[in-house]
Structures are given as C-alpha cells and as structure tokens.
Fold this protein.
Amino acid sequence: MSLSVLTIVKNRSAHLAQLVEGLRRSDVLPDELVIVDMGSAPTVSIGETPFPVRVVQLDLPGLPLAAGRNAAAQAAIGTDLLFLDVDCIPMRTLTDAMANALKKQDALICAEVLYLGPDDARGTWLEDDLQQRGVQHPVRAFPKSGLRKEENAGLFWSLVFGIRRMSFFDLRGFDDAFTGYGAEDTDFGFRAKQEKLPLLFMGGTGAFHQHHDSFDPPLQHLDDIVRNAMLFHKRWKIWPMEGWLEAFEKAGFIAREGEILTLIRRPDPDEIERARVVTAW
C-alpha cells in the first residue's frame, strides 16, 4: 500500500509552501506529492523534500478544479489518494491516519479542517499553536476520534479527503463538465453515494486551513456557479449551493422559476469588493 498526496494550485505559492512544510513534519511521510499547476505565474517550483514531488502542468482557462484533481489522480502512483486543498496544512498525524483508514475501509473519507485567522501560519509555526488558534466549521461536525458514517452526501468536502485510487476511477473521478468553481465536489459526493461508497468523517486529525480573501456571496465566481448549478440541478433535481443562489437572487443577479435559472446581470467591481469578508471560513 502506498499513499499519494495530491494538490492543485493557481498563484498560491505561499500557501503551497506551508502545505509542503506540513508534509515534511508528518510522522509518516507520503510516498509522493503530486502538484497540478493550473497556470500559476511564475510556474510552481518546490525545493528539496524528503519525499518525491512531481509537478504537472494543466493548460486550461479559468480555475479548472475538476479537471485539475483528475489530472493529479492520473499522475499518482499510490494505491491510496489523499487530496489536500492548497490552502491546507496537514497535521503531522494525517498521512498515517488516512493510510490506515483506507487500508480498512473502501470509502470516501473526509478529515476535519480547522480554520486559521489572517495572521496565523504566515511564517514559522508550531502545530500546537495552530491547534489552539484553529476554529471548527460551524456546520460539519466531526467525531473526536475514529470514523463516523455521514449519510448526507452534500456534506462531502474536497478540502481534505482520502479515497482508494481504484475507487476514484470507478467513480470516473470528478466530472469535468463542471468547469470553474462550484458544485463539482458535491456532484462527486452524490455519485459516491449513488455507487454505495460510504462517506466517512474522520476525527482526531486533519488539516489547518490558511486564511485567504473571501467573498460572501462569491460574486467573483457568479458565472461559474450559475452554469454549474444548472448542470447539477439537471442531473440531481435539486439546487446545490443554495445559500449562494439565494443571495444572488435577493440581490437581483439571478432569477429562478421552477427548474429554470436565469442570469439577470453581472456584478460590477464595487459590488464584488463590498462582498469581501474577514472570516475564518
């Protein structure tokens, strides 16, 4: 059994460096790190590491999240895959815990994420300090330790999750019909449930999410979210990202009538800037 850690990145070199530093401190090192560079400027460069690192260039427009994760999985050599969002710093016990869990469970396994503030993990850091500073997500509840089955496929998140490589390809990976930002991970979770692959939440270890600019609602991704929401609704007969769609609708950017979603107008730069928030998640 072997574990490949996978991440995708576009212009987040400082965050990526801390992800790599977290892996360096792991109790059990991964067998490799695969990085998909989705058009960073300059291109991704990693210094010496105690584990092999491979960088895959993906030349697609925008932010091709689904295609990027699929490219990482295609390049991986491990029997097990641990996907890490580039903003995440893995805890030192994460790689070992995920590898052991995947040996015992053919499942989709999400690990907990603690959210950091704007000044946390910006230079040198100690994991114990990050543990004290990190804030739990208000909706996703994880067990204190071990694994708990989660029936709500909509709670799958792509920030930190593990899956057997064979199971990933049995599910046909992420659907790259979802282009850009939004709903590709929820669709993946729904398809896993449809194929009876359990969704498990793992407690006791996970990752720290590094702070970055956030927008609520994410107006900068309006076109992507509208397009992907319509694709998701056509497939699953429910609306994803309901909170964001409601906010867009209330502000007059979109209209929904039955199964039809219409883009009314796009936000101007001032409206996008006013949506900027300082929040832990």
